[in-house]
Write a structure and sequence with these properties.
The chain has about 90 residues and is mainly α. Helices cover about 75% and strands about 10% of the residues. It has a domain of about 55 residues. The longest helix is centred in the last third of the chain and has 45 residues. The termini are far apart.
Length: about 90
């Protein structure tokens, strides 16, 4: 079941990429200071979307990882505090 779902997601991404590339075929020149790069608008939009997705996933993973680490360290402190006040 998971394999079929993954295949559907991949096919949807490929179809979206084809539509994006065909509908945005106009040439665009990116001037990055030292480098000038001419490509299609669809490629620029796809690269920007991919970079945004990658950065978002990395930052989301970092936040979740930091939250888990913080939660596990405060849980240990709560246990120590509660056990010392029982006496």
């Amino acid at each position: 079941m998971l394999r079929w779902l993954f295949a559907l997601i991949v096919l949807a991404g490929v179809a979206l990429g084809l539509v994006l590339g065909v509908l945005n075929a106009d040439p665009v020149t990116l001037d990055l200071g030292l480098v000038r790069w001419t490509t299609s608008l669809g490629a620029v939009v796809a690269a920007a979307s991919g970079a945004g997705l990658l950065v978002g996933l990395l930052l989301g993973g970092l936040v979740v990882r930091t939250g888990r680490r913080r939660a596990s360290s405060t849980a240990g402190r709560d246990l120590r505090v509660s056990s010392s006040t029982d006496e």
